[in-house]
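Fill in residues.
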């Protein structure tokens, strides 16, 4: 989801692309549940056929699965792409369970978990009728090393062994550490044992791409489908339509329901306009879904009639403000700690709609991550900020007379409001915050390029699967800082943190590892590379003819697109 952030995110960067509310994330999350039961309302049975409408503020970051890495686009990818494994299709914990997709199982480890073997199912084809082979999977994965293309999920590059000079198949040719002994078998050789590699191969970078294809921007304009739908029309920033891929065989796919005949996205809509249309529910909007409701509309959807169409839950991600420690005076830990103390998180929450739409964040990992510790390293009365303690730290750091910081943010009303809340909170400390708005569709690409990012950035992160391994290492392992697609926005490269990440990675007990990540959260926050802001909630209103809808814990709490459909395909 990567980015919540993507997500993922990063893992992924967090993002609800349905409404354009994107966050830097990994892409899993947790805790979201639908308001409806399995027999009525949004959760009822879906009919076969019809066109499902999606109303969105912002377009997708990338259609190329090696490039996109936020919760919203990761959700979309499952309609047109398949991976060796994938997350389940269900609400709650069942949705984040890793299940086979293109592969017959979730992988067979050998050499103590350093080598993993997968076997492809029979009857797998691309949209053009060509069979999907292990060579196509290898080609798709190898693209992750391309410096221009592979800016999405980082796990393949971090975990799979590869020559230090390898730059993807277009520049460096064959990757010898991925073997394809026959058309159905693919063998991955890892840098070190990785007990959860069966979850890694569910990442978007494991989408098969026909050998020799996908160079440059090819897949951003014309994806090559391996899933139940294929691209029919695409006008970036305006609209996108998917229709059935007749080469997809339901017998090979236990995850995707694929009941609608088509999906139609409309991008570029004002969030307030989306709310008005969803509340009115007229015309084709009865067949529509959208992103989370805007704060100004929350009170209006409390009527019994509209409540029947609402779905709500915790998004499973953390919204935070990254502090770029390579920039002065943020290179001084005391300054970063002062900012953590000074931010008024109540006003930040008010900016997104209050307690209905968010809980206040105190730690990096959200409540839905296993092993997470509930603590507050920078407390203040009612979370409104402690200016005096912050001022004392700035005086100690020698910057009590003030300084200027630039804050990267997205061009969306909610994100602008959050940025203003931060700006106002730091004013009493003589810290001038200049807000730098960046278009949502390119936001993560900009802030993920260290040469372009400014002093601070409001973003978010969601775990890519239910493990602490997908939250802290992607965001804070200094050895993974890259020139593009960088998820370590603070650019923290601390020897102690890096060593602890290595120590936890050696644990074979997942429960013990997650508990250790909970303690690592504390160790990182002592360095104050980020300001945890919110654990945002999802509140969605769907059309009266929508069925099969539930909020998926793995995609920033968004509606799972592989299961949603229409109650009556004739409407």
């Amino acid at each position: 989801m990567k980015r919540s952030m993507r997500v993922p995110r990063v893992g992924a960067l967090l993002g609800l692309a349905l409404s354009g509310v994107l966050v830097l994330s990994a892409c899993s999350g947790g805790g979201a549940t639908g308001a409806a039961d399995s027999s009525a309302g949004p959760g009822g049975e879906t009919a076969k056929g019809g066109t499902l409408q999606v109303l969105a503020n912002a377009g997708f970051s990338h259609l190329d699965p090696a490039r996109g890495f936020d919760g919203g686009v990761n959700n979309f990818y499952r309609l047109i792409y398949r991976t060796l494994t994938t997350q389940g299709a269900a609400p709650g914990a069942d949705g984040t369970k890793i299940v086979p997709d293109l592969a017959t199982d979730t992988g067979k480890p050998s050499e103590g978990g350093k080598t993993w073997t997968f076997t492809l199912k029979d009857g797998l084809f691309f949209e053009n009728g060509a069979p999907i082979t292990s060579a196509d999977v290898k080609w798709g994965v190898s693209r992750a090393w391309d410096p221009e293309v592979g800016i999405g999920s980082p796990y393949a590059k971090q975990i799979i062994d590869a020559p230090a000079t390898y730059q993807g198949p277009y520049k460096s040719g064959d990757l010898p550490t991925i073997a394809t002994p026959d058309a159905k078998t693919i063998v991955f050789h890892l840098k070190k044992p990785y007990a959860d590699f069966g979850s890694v191969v569910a990442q978007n970078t494991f989408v098969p791409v026909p050998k020799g294809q996908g160079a440059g921007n090819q897949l951003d304009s014309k994806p090559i489908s391996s899933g139940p739908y294929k691209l029919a029309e695409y006008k970036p920033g305006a609209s996108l339509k998917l229709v059935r891929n007749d080469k997809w065989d339901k017998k090979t796919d236990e995850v995707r329901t694929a009941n609608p005949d088509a999906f139609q996205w409309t991008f570029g809509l004002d969030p307030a306009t989306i709310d008005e249309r969803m509340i009115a529910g007229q015309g084709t909007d009865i067949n529509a879904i959208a992103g989370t409701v805007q704060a100004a509309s929350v009170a209006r959807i409390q009527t019994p009639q509209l409540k029947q169409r609402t779905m709500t839950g915790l998004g499973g991600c953390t919204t935070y403000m990254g502090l770029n420690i390579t920039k002065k005076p943020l290179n001084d830990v005391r300054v970063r700690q002062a900012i953590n103390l000074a931010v008024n998180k109540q006003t930040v929450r008010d900016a997104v709609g209050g307690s209905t739409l968010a809980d206040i964040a105190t730690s990096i990992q959200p409540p839905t991550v296993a092993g997470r510790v509930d603590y507050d390293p920078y407390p203040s009365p009612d979370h409104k900020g402690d200016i005096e303690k912050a001022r004392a730290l700035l005086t100690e750091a020698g910057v009590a007379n003030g300084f200027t910081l630039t804050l990267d943010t997205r061009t969306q009303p909610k994100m602008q409001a959050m940025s203003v809340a931060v700006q106002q909170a730091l004013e009493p400390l003589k810290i001038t915050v200049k807000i730098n708005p960046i278009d949502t569709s390119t936001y993560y690409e900009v802030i993920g390029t260290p040469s372009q990012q400014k002093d601070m950035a409001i973003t978010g992160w969601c775990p890519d699967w239910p493990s602490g391994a997908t939250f802290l290492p992607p965001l804070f392992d200094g050895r993974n800082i890259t020139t593009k697609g960088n998820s370590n926005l603070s650019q923290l490269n601390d020897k102690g943190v890096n060593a602890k990440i290595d120590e936890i990675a050696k644990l074979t007990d997942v429960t013990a590892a997650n508990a250790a990540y909970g303690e690592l959260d504390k160790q990182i926050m002592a360095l104050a590379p980020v300001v945890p802001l919110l654990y945002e909630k999802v509140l969605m209103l769907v059309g009266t003819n929508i069925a099969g809808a539930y909020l998926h814990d793995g995609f920033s709490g968004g509606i799972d697109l592989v299961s949603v459909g229409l109650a009556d395909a004739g409407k």
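The longest helix spans residues 510-525.
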